[in-house]
Design goal:
about 20% strand; about 475 residues; 19 strands; TIM Barrel; six-stranded antiparallel beta sheet; alpha/beta; Urease, subunit C, domain 1
């Protein structure tokens, strides 16, 4: 997409650095699209572009299923006695069985523009819709992966593709259901896909690995994939303990809870990202912390699907790395995700500012949650570092100082207002790798991307609504 190269020097009166809010910050962009210098307490130098509002780093969307943007808002009616994750899943299959590569590109590009507006500058695609609609491989087995990569390039967002190991429907099955035929992938196919994507040399494109879940992959296949990835630094993502039914099924099949099983197998290390982890015991949280594994929370999806509430104080207190994901695309803004994450805990515990930790010097729930999500971003995406720090990719968000949420707020409480004084405006400016992809609230190709998205949804009806 057309993107405006930023001047090599930027200056802002207020920016979020690792120490929190800092004043009079100079940021220099290197030729490699990474921060060459980030220095606070600097008078604006001649030639530097003065930014219009408070500056924050973009976050990584650590868990996304782009194709599910096609039916976001389209499953919010109940026509039977009950509705839960499992009935929603059947509707999801109806859409997944129809999407072609060109439609996936159109849907994902629209999503990725929306994610940029919502403050994400990198997205991790948990990608299991890999085969043709009849279940056979495409002539190029990575046709759907390249569709996602093309969509990310169209939008100007960074992308980590996570090919998914997916081989069975349940613990007591050795095959996929008919409606899961597009998802099948062996350990060798999954690892080969990761290596091809990583070797493609496309700008802003990386790759990792994923395992759909313990119910969808056998112990021997998980071990085989782990052996293939031995010595590789990329992330390994897995859905785990999202619903109580999944936990119960795992207990019946293995005698252990999902995170407990992973810990007992000795497979977890700092590469692993435990997605959802909604129903984790204190012992499982401690085991994850001891292994170095991280957790990816998806509050809007977990709320939308009725999954339940995680033990947020437990995960925070154990020091487990944490990231945020948009998952089913019920929301595409990290401010909404952090708000819902905290509000769910307040409703459950009947307390305020649950995430805050004044004993650790962090009195703000928004600042603690944002800081933790920022710290977990690099590991989730397979990046060497993240944030407004030298060496990290030059990604940045500029808040609109005219946003109603920021009016009358002390500048150093801007993050509190951006998360908890809703609704907030889209980010005024968004930079990815040293280039402005949103400027003055405008994305250069949003109109054409939106038109292709509308056309794709028209083709997919009635499955998409």
């Amino acid at each position: 997409m057309p993107a405006e190269a930023a001047p090599t020097a930027l200056w802002t009166p207020l920016a979020w650095l690792p120490a929190g809010w800092c004043e009079n910050v100079l940021l220099r962009v290197g030729h490699d699209g990474r921060w060459a210098e980030v220095t606070a307490g600097v008078t604006a130098p001649a030639g530097a572009e003065a930014l219009a509002g408070p500056v924050l780093p973009g976050l990584v969307d650590a868990h996304s299923h782009a194709f599910q943007r096609a039916f976001a808002g389209g499953t919010e009616r109940r026509d039977s006695a009950s509705d839960d994750f499992w009935s929603w899943r059947e509707r999801m299959y109806a859409v997944a069985l129809r999407i072609a590569p060109a439609q996936l590109r159109a849907i994902a590009a629209q999503l990725y523009v929306e994610l940029l507006r919502g403050g994400y500058t990198q997205v991790c695609e948990f990608h299991y819709m890999q085969r043709d609609v009849d279940g056979r491989p495409y002539a190029d087995p990575l046709a759907m992966s390249w569709a996602l990569a093309d969509a990310a390039a169209d939008a100007g967002i960074g992308l980590t593709v996570l090919p998914v190991l997916y081989e069975r429907a349940a613990f007591d099955s050795d095959r996929l259901r008919t409606e899961q035929r597009r998802f099948g992938a062996t350990p060798t196919e999954t690892h080969h896909a990761r290596r091809r994507i990583a070797a493609a040399g496309r700008p802003l494109l990386g790759a990792g690995l994923a395992i759909h879940s313990l119910r969808a992959a056998s112990a021997s296949s998980i071990a085989a994939l782990r052996a293939l990835a031995d010595g590789e630094a990329g992330p390994i993502h897995i859905h785990v303990a999202e619903q109580t039914a999944e936990v119960d099924e795992c207990l019946r099949a293995t005698g252990l809870r999902p995170i407990e099983w992973l810990a007992r197998q000795g497979v977890l290390d700092a590469r692993w990202q435990l997605v959802h982890a909604t129903h984790a015991t204190p012992a499982e949280i401690d085991a994850a912390a001891a292994s170095g594994a991280a957790v990816v929370l998806c509050p809007s999806t977990e709320a939308n699907l009725g999954d339940g509430l995680c033990d947020l104080p437990g995960w925070l207190g154990a020091g487990v790395p944490l990231a945020i994901g948009s998952d089913s695309q019920a929301s595409r803004d990290w401010r909404e995700e952090l708000r819902l994450l905290e509000y769910g805990q307040r409703l459950m515990l009947r307390r305020r500012n649950v995430a805050a930790a004044p004993e650790l010097g962090v009195a703000s729930s928004a600042e603690r949650l944002f800081g933790r999500a920022l710290a977990g971003s690099a590991g989730a995406a397979g990046e060497p570092g993240w944030g407004l720090v030298a060496g990290a990719r030059a990604d940045a968000l500029v808040a609109d100082p005219r946003d109603d949420a920021l009016r009358g707020i002390d500048a150093r409480r801007s993050l509190d207002a951006l998360v908890f004084s809703s609704p907030t405006a889209p980010w005024r400016d968004v930079m990815v790798a040293g280039r402005w992809v949103i400027r003055g609230g405008q994305h250069a190709t949003a109109t054409s991307i939106g038109a292709r998205f509308a056309e794709a949804l028209h083709e997919l009806r009635p499955a998409a609504v």
